[in-house]
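Transposase
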Amino acid sequence: MAGKREKPEDIVLKLRQVEVLQGQGKSVQEGVRQIGVTVQTYYRWRKEYGGMSRDQLKRLKELEAENTRLRRAVSDLTLDKMILAEAARGNY
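Tokens:
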């Protein structure tokens, strides 16, 4: 059974909470326990979102959406080009 998915904004806040707790002298395990995730999840999140601010996260989401849109446009144009090339050869 899959667990609940955290929003990236919430992940950044939770990572920041653990950093604050570490600054107060608590261990990573104690901080992770307080935010309610496993140590493995914490390190996976830190690898993906570590050091990001909310503004950077927002920009990342915008760039990912733009990248998806551009990939779709390129694939559509490539398909159109292949269809036209095949029709020009007379293999229709």
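The chain has two domains: 1-52, 55-92.
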